[in-house]
From TrEMBL:
<keyword id="KW-0378">Hydrolase</keyword>
<comment type="similarity">
    <text>Belongs to the allantoicase family.</text>
</comment>
<dbReference type="GO" id="GO:0004037">
    <property type="term" value="F:allantoicase activity"/>
</dbReference>
<comment type="pathway">
    <text>Nitrogen metabolism; (S)-allantoin degradation; (S)-ureidoglycolate from allantoate (aminidohydrolase route): step 1/1.</text>
</comment>
<protein>
    <recommendedName>
        <fullName>Probable allantoicase</fullName>
        <ecNumber>3.5.3.4</ecNumber>
    </recommendedName>
</protein>
<dbReference type="Pfam" id="PF03561">
    <property type="entry name" value="Allantoicase"/>
</dbReference>
<dbReference type="InterPro" id="IPR005164">
    <property type="entry name" value="Allantoicase"/>
</dbReference>
<keyword id="KW-0659">Purine metabolism</keyword>
<feature type="domain" description="Allantoicase">
    <location>
        <begin position="185"/>
        <end position="311"/>
    </location>
</feature>
<dbReference type="InterPro" id="IPR008979">
    <property type="entry name" value="Galactose-bd-like_sf"/>
</dbReference>
<dbReference type="InterPro" id="IPR015908">
    <property type="entry name" value="Allantoicase_dom"/>
</dbReference>
<feature type="domain" description="Allantoicase">
    <location>
        <begin position="16"/>
        <end position="165"/>
    </location>
</feature>
Length: 315
């Protein structure tokens, strides 16, 4: 597993990603490419189009060219790595694949996207059947779309585009926003333990549907407590904190605290405060100092569904 996979999947459907077009999807739908979770497979399950696959599969190409799928990233950002997964495709996977990326403002049509300027971020590379392929990506450019190319045809189960969200925050000028949110450019940069699930889940869009969609640590047997650090979307002032333990009934922390770091050093935003299981807690923040990072301490261990830090950007 490559280190970049700890970063959010910018293309994930649950984060607003969409497969906006594909050259062909005769055997299996393009939308499967960005579904959450590992691909599933039930052998000898046939429909009108043949064996049912949890992935994207094109017909056998009888003319020159190759197949492709256009993906709008749910979280525009700097791409750090790509995973092309051919899980369960064995005799019908593409021989090779490549990935291109583009930055297109607004809400482009498919025709406008196809005419855009594309940059190759993963060169044409050989694929194996039923395997995950990991490709590191360099560069700081922010992208809004990617194009997956399959040579010449076949099936790919999942496309993961891991990176750092970098949205245009000018939309929020003069308005408040969730300074911690992934979709606004927040990112968990460090945590004490990620045994059961990724800490970046706590700043993901929407509500957690079950406890696996939050952050949960192993049971702590020694002293101390668990924690995570959130790099905010930008320097700002936190006005309202939400600490959500929804779905965590028997494994919620007993307490939590928030500590900000900014130009004036460390500032206590929320002192150690008791939490209830399966509850969305909201706390007004009296401290008005500007912070760039917030450390969330939970005592002694357990899990959180979401952390929201509502406030305003700027000094």
């Amino acid at each position: 597993m490559d280190p970049f996979t700890a970063l959010p999947d910018l293309a994930l459907r649950a984060y607003g990603g969409s497969v906006v077009a594909a050259s062909d999807e005769s055997f299996a739908e393009k939308e499967n490419l960005i579904r959450p979770g590992r691909p599933s497979f039930r052998p000898h399950t046939f429909g009108a189009r043949g064996q049912v696959y949890d992935g994207w599969e094109t017909r056998r190409r009888r003319e020159p060219g190759h197949d492709w799928a256009l993906v709008r990233l749910g979280l525009p950002g700097a791409v750090r790595g790509v995973v092309v997964d051919t899980a369960h495709f064995t005799g019908n996977h593409p021989a090779c694949a490549s990935v291109e990326a583009a930055s297109v403002e607004g809400y482009p049509t498919v025709a406008e996207l196809r005419a855009a300027e594309w940059t190759e971020i993963v060169p044409r590379s050989a694929l194996k059947g039923d395997a995950e392929h990991f490709f590191e990506v360099a560069g700081e450019r922010c992208y809004t779309h990617v194009r997956l190319n399959a040579f010449p045809d076949g099936g790919i189960a999942r496309l993961r585009v891991h990176g750092e969200p970098r949205p245009d925050l000018s939309l929020h000028d003069g308005l408040g926003l969730d300074l911690a949110a992934l979709e606004n450019g927040g990112l968990v940069t460090d945590c004490s333990n990620a045994f059961y699930s990724s800490p970046n889940n706590v700043i993901a869009p929407g509500l957690a549907r079950h406890q696996a969609e939050g952050w949960e640590t192993a049971r702590r047997r020694g002293g101390g407590n668990d924690w995570l650090v959130i790099r905010l979307a930008g320097a700002g002032t936190v006005k309202l904190a939400e600490i959500d333990t929804t779905n965590l009934v028997f494994n919620a922390p007993g307490w939590a605290s928030l500590t900000g770091t900014g130009p004036d050093g460390e500032i206590v935003l929320l002192p150690k405060t008791r939490l209830l299981p399966d509850t969305r807690h909201r706390f007004r923040i009296a401290e008005t100092a500007v912070v760039t990072h917030v450390r969330v301490d939970i005592y002694p261990d357990g899990g959180l569904a979401r952390v929201r830090l509502h406030g305003v950007l700027g000094r």
